[in-house]
Design brief:
about 325 residues, alpha/beta, Quinone Oxidoreductase, Chain A, domain 1, Rossmann fold, 2 domains, 7-stranded mixed sheet, 6-stranded parallel sheet, 15 strands
């Protein structure tokens, strides 16, 4: 195995503003021999995630910043091609945090989950059954404590986190309103059960549109966009409302001193609002239970998947950068390796 070459995508330079493919570089190396207690995975599928952007500008986020020449973070589906680990056999498949590479040598530690349920599509384990879906699950259940009969507003609702959050909420009897960019995205959200959608490209007054869709107000805001959206929604929240800060896709490429601030913070006092963020790995012990329930819903047709597929490690820099440029980005971006 020592002569086998492998490739990975590294950070070329700290990124200022929106990422471009030139901010990354593909490098080739030689795989070391598989040592005692190690597992060699061939990567079958990998994801590109907008949340990685927060680590690419040289400043620490909830994880340490990536430095130039380090492999870009990402989640993958891998198949064991060589093992010297007692718990792993050749042919086993797993969801793992391998980063952007075509092979990965693991010591069995870190995020490494054996895939034993073959019912859902394999790539669901880095989508609805992976970090995006689990973020939606624990954001709704633990952070928001969402209840039957409440009204949920989801921003960036056609993304993998937002779309999953809305569908989970429907299973629990909430009214769900989604904000997305474009008629095609809104139509798809309605086809998977959203009660109402708002096309942000075709709506000059988002606040008025939200009021029309939720005349009694919003109980839970599940935000994936950033400060401007949170501030817009604050006056529309019902008493005891909860705001889940799940992502900040509109703010990731904006320097902190240039981001929009929150002005409507008086509502936290007058309406006893609560706002809380989450890092999904805080809930890692509860992953299996959540995944079992969501897998059942996928098999039953109650939880739908939406993916965009790309081919080859060469496509990864473009697939990632385009997330911040293209209004057509729609669904979980999966690269088939």
């Amino acid at each position: 195995m020592g002569s086998r070459k492998h490739r990975r995508v590294i950070l070329e330079r700290a990124i200022v503003g929106k990422p471009t493919p030139e901010d990354f570089r593909i490098v080739e190396g030689v795989l070391p021999e598989t040592g005692e207690g190690q597992i060699l995975f061939r990567i079958l599928h990998a994801s590109v995630d907008p949340g990685v952007r927060s680590r690419l500008s040289g400043g620490d986020s909830y994880s340490a910043a990536l430095k130039p020449n380090e492999t870009i973070d990402g989640f993958s589906i891998g198949e064991v091609i060589e093992s010297r680990h007692e718990r792993w056999q050749v042919g086993d498949r797993a969801a793992l945090a391998a980063g952007w590479c075509d092979h990965y040598l693991s010591d069995g530690k870190g995020y490494l989950q054996r895939i034993t349920d073959a019912r859902p599509p394999l790539t669901a384990w880095i989508g609805v059954l992976g970090v995006p879906g689990l973020t939606a699950w624990f954001g709704l259940h633990r952070v928001a404590e969402a209840k039957e009969g409440e009204t949920l507003l989801v921003t960036s609702a056609a993304g993998p986190v937002g779309a999953t959050a809305g569908q989970i909420a429907k299973q629990h009897g909430l009214k769900v309103i989604g904000i997305a960019g474009g008629a095609e995205k809104c139509a798809w959200l309605e086809s998977v059960g959203f009660d109402a959608t708002i096309d942000r490209h075709a709506t000059p007054d988002l606040a008025a549109a939200i009021r029309a869709a939720a005349p009694k107000g919003v109980d839970v805001l599940f935000d994936n966009v950033g400060n401007a959206m949170v501030d817009l929604a604050l006056p529309l929240m019902r008493p005891r409302g909860r705001i889940v800060v799940s992502g900040q896709v509109a703010d990731y490429s904006t320097p902190p001193d240039q981001r929009v601030g929150l002005k409507n913070t008086d509502r936290f006092i007058t309406h006893r609002l609560r706002m809380e963020g989450l890092v999904v790995f805080d809930d890692i012990r509860a992953f299996p239970e959540a995944q079992r329930q969501m897998a059942d819903w996928i098999v039953a047709g109650a939880l739908k998947l939406k993916e965009e597929r790309f081919k080859g490690i060469e496509s990864m820099p473009h697939a990632f950068s385009d997330l911040f440029e293209s209004n057509a980005a729609f669904g979980r971006r999966i690269v088939d390796l």
